[in-house]
Amino acid sequence: MYTIMATINKTISKSPVQQELKSFRKNMDSWVKFFNGKLQSISNVAGQFNEVNTNTNHNYELIKELKEEMEEMKAEIKTMKLMQMMILEKTVEGREELV
User: Fold this and answer.
1) Domain limits of the chain?
2) Against a cut of 0.70, is the pTM above it?
3) pLDDT (tens digit, 0 to 9) for every residue of the chain, 99 residues total?
4) How far is C-alpha 88 from the geometric centre of its chain's CA atoms?
């Protein structure tokens, strides 16, 4: 009985089915390694996406602050123009009184 099983095992190991199975395992290992590599790349991209998102939010906040500062500066410039106009008016009125 043992010799018959040994003979069957030798025949199976040399059979095309066994060779196909070995080829399938090898291909499957390669595919799994490839897939794991792609998953690693995706996880790296997720981290980079979070960093870009954080930077974008920070830049948005900076832009918002700069916009507020610009509005304040516009108001200050407007005030300075009005003050200069008032000074000029008083200067012109003073000269007219002298004449």
Assistant:
1) 16-98
2) no
3) 556 556 555 655 567 777 888 888 888 888 888 888 888 888 788 788 889 999 999 999 999 999 999 999 999 999 999 999 999 999 888 777 765
4) 55
